[in-house]
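The methods section describes the discrete structure representation at length, but only in general terms. What matters is that the chain and its backbone geometry are given together, residue for residue. Nothing conveys this as quickly as seeing an actual entry. For illustration, here is how one protein appears when written out as sequence plus structure tokens:
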Amino acid sequence: MTKIAVIADPHIGVGKPHFVDNWKRAVAHVNARAPVLTVILGDLTFDGANSEADCAFARQAIEALKAPCLVLPGNHDIGDTDRASGQPSNSERIARWTRHFGADRWFSDAVPGWRLIGIDSQILGTGLAEETDQWAFLEDALTSGDRRPVLFTHQPLFLKHWDEGDRPYWAIAGEPRRRLREQLTRSGAVAAVSAHIHRALALIHSDGPSIIWAPATSFLTRDVSMPAQDGTALTGVTFLDLAEAGLSVGFDPIPSLETFYIEDFNGTLYPAPAR
């Protein structure tokens, strides 16, 4: 059995460092568990989409993790998929990310018998040239021989079910979601692991990819501010155990994390997104 740590939505930066102490406590917790690999599932930075300083700060911060680390961008790192957003993902923002953290997509065969694949959810459905390149990358990465694929993204594939309507800020849009579903099913992918919702959820399936949402280390949200969703409100980290028998998931609440609700900041940190 091989243990992988997943850290989601740290939201750390220099201008508004409210969640940095929670990040440090989460890092200490992960280091104590000694995983072979740590995956950070996006929104690592508070405002890396606009701030070089936040990216530089976060890049230095991940050096505290003892295990090798793979990082994906989220909407606060490189912008939104919605082209009408005031902060759309674009080539400039992606380039800033890659200067600090490396590629916005990757795969790893570090765990025997498994292939871990990370993609940039913030370009899906955008029509950017980077999206075209990523679809080709994913097709190749899912051709993994006898290795069992696990997909990692920032945005979840859906909030309630595969065939729901588009919710551009909250989940991957319908057209790329359908394409992902076909690719994951064809390849026999075991699970899709995501972040962004700041809740913990594990829907384990035997006839398709299991759906796992990793809880955040930074803050919680109140139900009145969110679209209807499942899962459990907790702050902590996630551990995936990968073994010959399959994948198992454990959510680790970290009692030392300070509990924040984003609504209590009254819009002084982030503007409220549309529900």
